[in-house]
Structure formats: C-alpha cells, structure tokens
Specification:
The protein has 231 residues and is an alpha/beta fold. The protein has one domain: Alpha-Beta Barrel (TIM Barrel), CATH 3.20.20. Helices cover 36% and strands 15% of the residues. It has a 7-stranded parallel β-sheet. Helix 4 packs parallel to helix 5. The protein is globular. It binds zinc ion (ZN) (2 copies). The site of one zinc ion (ZN) has 4 residues, from loops. The site of one zinc ion (ZN) has 5 residues, from loops.
C-alpha cells in the first residue's frame, strides 16, 4: 500500500510547531505518496487565528506548486453544536480540498452513554449538511465511545457515511478506531483515510505501523481515500 498522511498540523495551529514547507520535506523523506495539511479550525482554543486563514490558504497553494508529492489543502474543522455546524463559512469550505470534521469537546453531556449519543447525533448532522471528506479520530473523546453505541446505531451511521462518501480516519496518534470497526467500514463500503495527527515535523508520516495493521486486516488499496486523489 502506498502510505499517505492526511492529518497534519502546521504552526498555523497554536499547538503546532512545523512550517508547512518543513512538513512537505519531512513527508518526502518518510516516503509519503501524498499528504494533507489540516490545521485546526478557529473555534478550538488552539485553532488557527481567523485573521490568518487567507495567509494559510495562500501559503499552501504556493507550496503545492513546489511540492514533489501531492499536497492537499486541508483543515481539521470542529463540529461545534448539535446542528452539526462547523467552524468555517461555506464560501471558504469550498476551497478546502480535504476538510476533516472532528469533535473535540461536548460540554453538555457527561455519562459515557450520553456522550456517545450526542457525538453520534452531531456527527450525523454535520455529514448530512456539509461536504466534509473525513471524520477525524472517530468516536474518540478521551476514550472510545463505540462501546456505548448499539450495533444498529453504528451500522446506520456507516450507511450514511457510505452514502455521503465521507471517509473514516484511522488516527495513528490516538490509535483509533479499533479493528472491528475498521472491518465494518470496509464491509459497508466506507473508505478509510489515514493520519498521523502530527503537531511537530518529527511526527509527520508516522503512519507506517497503521498501514501494516490495515494490510493485516485485509484492507486493500481501493479501500483507501488516496485513490481518489492519485488518478
Ligand atoms: Zn483532533
Ligand atoms: Zn488533529
């Protein structure tokens, strides 16, 4: 399988350290076939400064011309409420080649069952309303929420993902989602993305273990989102 890393933060995220050009260099050295730079949306405390969004897009666009591997302009957007809203206005969203939608906090719920339900509802609303490319670190909020959902709910969710052609991210940093869920994605025709969730140059491209594991699970090249970008 051709390794790729579609979840990388640059120093445009307040918790990121590498310059975009440094990320591309590192990815080339680590043998990545393609990458997406996906900085945090502005709602998160460590998100991009809203006034820097244009500079971010401009810098990545210029870098695309120099990069020897395909570089996708991405964002890791936040699903901010129960209506599935995300923290980038529609006109800007249309410029993003790989928008990941993630949930980083759920203020109103507390018991794990409740958290899992609210997570599911928000993710569903977002996917129904917005053309996002992937769900970032799916069902992970300090712990996996999957054990608190019924098989029926999970299957229904994956049917929606397949229908909307949204991919499920396999996240190297949080080691999520678990193998059974990955197998179910493939069975349901949901494509997979892979991301290191790097916040430093050294972490870029730390996805080789994930690809080995996916291979062992029987995941094929055609089950991966990269195929759509390499044609
Ligand atoms: Zn995240
Ligand atoms: Zn991230």
């Amino acid at each position: 399988m051709k390794p790729f890393d579609f979840h990388i933060h640059s120093h445009y995220s307040a918790d990121g350290h590498a310059a975009p050009a440094q990320i591309v260099e590192e990815a080339e050295v680590k043998g990545m076939y393609a990458i997406a730079i996906t900085d945090h949306g502005p709602e998160l405390s460590v998100g991009i400064n809203p006034y820097s969004i244009n500079a971010y897009l401009e810098e990545l666009k210029n870098l695309q011309k120099e990069s020897s591997i395909p570089l996708l302009i991405g964002f890791e957007l936040n699903i901010v409420d129960r209506y599935g809203n995300i923290d980038l206005p529609e006109p800007l969203l249309s410029k993003i080649e790989f928008p990941i939608a993630s949930i980083h906090y759920l203020r109103e719920a507390s018991a794990p069952q409740q958290l899992a339900r609210s997570y599911l509802e928000r993710a569903k609303m977002c996917i129904e309303r917005f053309p996002v490319a992937a769900l970032g670190h799916p069902f992970f909020l300090h712990r996996s929420l999957l054990p608190f959902l019924s098989r029926e709910d999970i299957e229904e969710f994956l049917d929606l993902m397949a229908d909307k052609r949204v991919t499920i991210e396999v996240n190297a940093k949080y080691n999520t989602p678990p193998p059974d869920f990955i197998k179910l994605c493939i069975h349901k025709g949901v494509k997979l993305s892979v991301g290191s969730d790097a916040h430093t140059a050294a972490e870029v491209g730390k996805v080789h273990d994930i690809f080995r594991r996916l291979s062992k699970l029987g995941v094929k090249e055609e089950d991966l989102v990269i195929n759509e970008f390499m044609k």
